[in-house]
Amino acid sequence: MKTIYDFSVNKPNGEQISLQDFKGKPLIIVNTASKCGLTPQFKGLQNLYDAYKEQGLEILGFPCDQFNNQEFDNIDETTSFCQLNYGVSFPMFAKIDVNGEHTDPLFTFLKDQKKGFIFKNIKWNFTKFLVDRNGRVVKRYPPTTDPSKMAKDVLQLLT
């Protein structure tokens, strides 16, 4: 059976990294946007990261421009915006597609593992996936879920 460790993703500079680098750590994988009404969730995600990174939690952010063009064209603008406005220190990756013909393979896998409430496709920015230490997708959260509401589930994976 496949796990997220079977995938590689691109850093903002285009360098490829294997998700094997995160093996043994609980993960939150999220599609993000810098110019969205939900963008303030970066603060909540960063708060989770600050609270639990010493216990192993990693958060992986994937900018996406598929929902009303709410992401900067330049990835450097995206990463600077996230750091300056929300103090984001968790890893951010290259801009990707999460739906459609050019869906990133990681997000195809995530959606296959945990479908949404009604649809398989991601319906908006800040859809979040929780992954356990073994690389299995254990939960999918809709875009409107405040990251603070994920803390209980994260704690379960950390113990």
Automatic annotation (TrEMBL):
One of its GO terms (biological process) is cellular response to oxidative stress. One of its GO terms (molecular function) is peroxidase activity. Keywords: Oxidoreductase, Peroxidase. InterPro entries: Glutathione_peroxidase, GPX_AS, Thioredoxin-like_sf, Thioredoxin_domain. Coiled coil: none annotated. SUPFAM superfamilies: Thioredoxin-like. Residues 1-159 form the Thioredoxin domain. The active site is at C36. Belongs to the glutathione peroxidase family. PANTHER family: GLUTATHIONE PEROXIDASE (PTHR11592). This is Glutathione peroxidase. The lineage of its organism: Bacteria, Bacillati, Bacillota, Bacilli, Bacillales.
